[in-house]
Design goal:
Layout: H1 5-44, H2 51-86
Helix pairs in contact: 1-2
Length: about 100
């Protein structure tokens, strides 16, 4: 079954667009990473720390903050649960309802 010239042309265009899209995406990501590395180097490194070491440290600090936050939330939920369980709420007196 022979393909029409239009189908062949569309396929070539699609392949070129696909390649161009990936080239642009790679350039954008590379540019972003370059800017991010410069920012980390300028503002977030400590002493003679490399950018890679700073990124690892920052990642570890973020992981630690998340774990601590999760632990504080769990502790708060436990305290609330204990308060609810140990709070005595007097029962409401039951009144006979009269219908008019």
């Amino acid at each position: 079954m022979a393909k029409s010239p239009l189908i062949k042309a569309n396929k070539k265009i699609a392949e070129k667009l696909y390649g161009a899209h990936h080239a642009v995406a790679d350039t954008v990501v590379s540019g972003f990473n370059s800017v991010a590395d410069k920012f980390v180097d300028e503002f977030l490194t400590k002493d003679d720390e490399s950018v890679e070491e700073a990124r690892k440290r920052l990642s570890e600090e973020e992981r630690t903050r998340k774990e601590e936050s999760k632990q504080r939330l769990e502790e708060q939920q436990e305290r609330q649960k204990d308060i609810i369980e140990h709070t005595h709420v007097p029962e409401m007196p039951h009144h006979a309802h009269t219908h008019r």
